[in-house]
Amino acid sequence: DAGVTQSPTHLIKTRGQQVTLRCSPKSGHDTVSWYQQALGQGPQFIFQYYEEEERQRGNFPDRFSGHQFPNYSSELNVNALLLGDSALYLCASSGLQGWAANYEQYFGPGTRLTVT
Amino acid sequence: GQQLNQSPQSMFIQEGEDVSMNCTSSSIFNTWLWYKQEPGEGPVLLIALYKAGELTSNGRLTAQFGITRKDSFLNISASIPSDVGIYFCAGQLASGGGADGLTFGKGTHLIIQP
């Protein structure tokens, strides 16, 4: 049973550029959430996708956008990168196999983004 | 963004000791989850709590959902070297028919001294 996978593992971008990160959810999961984790901090919720739509959004600017595909995989896009966007970006998936599965989020290994 | 108050920030313990950490919030949550994160990896789910007052165990780990729904506690008994890592609490609400995004604490860094 494959867990949550993310690509790429590491990425280096220049300020002002755009970046796309990818996530494949755990088998049987249909909901994908994205988080930003700065060094020494806990993850911060960016947004959540369900049925190919953004269901909930955290306190992040519109430069952060996403997409969910029919196979439940998801992308996170960040435009006009700032130095402060350097962080570990985590994807988490959850599912509907049993009521508890809707609440338990399982994380991928993350993508380390460095903005120079 | 909002973060939960998690304490202690770090713990230096000896192998075999018991560990306790807690998390408090000014807001009520419907669900509390505890994760462990090791360097270069994503958080791994340890325990999920769904009811106020609930006490749940997972091996040597025991967690409790506070009665006020504003706090949670995690205990690790008889610590071993592989327990080293950063432990995060996360609170969650449920709205619009689905589970909301998680609100995390800043983590407790567990270090085991030889």
Brief write-up:
Chain A has 116 residues and is mostly beta strands. Chain A has strands spanning 5-7, 10-13, 19-24, 29-37, 44-50, 53-57, 64-68, 74-78, 87-95, 106-107, 111-115.
Which descriptors apply to this entry?
heterodimer; A: 116 residues; mainly beta; 7-stranded mixed beta sheet; 4-stranded antiparallel beta sheet; B: 114 residues; 6-stranded mixed beta sheet; 5-stranded antiparallel beta sheet; globular
Series of H and E elements of chain A? EEEEEEEEEEE
Low-confidence stretches of chain A: none
Mean pLDDT of chain A: 93
Report Rg of chain A. Answer: 14 Å
| Arithmetic mean pLDDT of chain B | 93
Explain this structure to me?
The complex is a heterodimer of chains A (116) and B (114). Chain A has strands at residues 5-7, 10-13, 19-24, 29-37, 44-50, 53-57, 64-68, 74-78, 87-95, 106-107, 111-115. By secondary structure, chain A is mostly beta strands. Chain A starts with a strand and ends with a strand. In chain B, the strands form three sheets. In chain B, strands 2, 4, 5, 9, 12 and 13 form a six-stranded mixed beta sheet that branches. A five-stranded antiparallel beta sheet of chain B has the order 1-3-8-7-6, with no helix packed on it. In chain B, 34% of the residues are buried. Chain B has strands at 5-7, 10-14, 19-24, 31-37, 44-49, 55-58, 61-65, 71-76, 85-92, 94-95, 98-99, 103-104, 108-113. Chains A and B meet through strand 4, strand 5, strand 9 and strand 10 of A and strand 4, strand 5, strand 9, strand 10 and strand 11 of B.
